[in-house]
Structure formats: C-alpha cells, structure tokens
Amino acid sequence: MKDSLMKANIDYRGYSNYDKALKMYEENYMEKIDDETIIFVLGDARNNRNDARMKTFLNLSDRAKHVFWLNPEEKRKFDNKS
Fold first, then answer.
1. Predicted confidence (pLDDT) per residue in 43-60, tens digit
2. CB 31 within 8 A of CB 64
3. Residue ranges of the domains in the chain?
4. To which H or E segment does residue 21 belong?
C-alpha cells in the first residue's frame, strides 16, 4: 500500500478528476475486471469540468459483478456545485 501511494499521482488540492482515475483503470486493469469483480468508488462524484469517461465507467459496470459508489458528502450537497 505504501509503495502504491508513493507512486500515485495524487492531486491534494481536492479537485475530483474521475477522467484520470478511469483512464488509469482502462489502461491497466480493464482486462482483469470480470463477473466476479466488485468495484467500490469512494468520491464526491464531481468531476470539475473534466471528461466524465462515461463509456469507460459503463464498460467497467458491464464487466463487473457489482459497482458501488460511496459518496462521503451530505445528500443536500449533491448536484449543487458547492
């Protein structure tokens, strides 16, 4: 885990960029996703004007057994750009 975090290109400013994360999954892990895979996404679901990569996300969803998105923000903050 420590080695992975040291190599990760993490933006600590707090701006979500699912384009970057989904691109990494697509390039490095897509072939490993199968009907036994369970994917958990932890994030605010904001993408801050980046490409949403919906095609990649839908491909992951189609290949995986389940996808769960855990949003740590309060529901009242959903879809209000704050």
1. 888 877 888 899 999 999
2. no
3. 2-77
4. helix 18-28
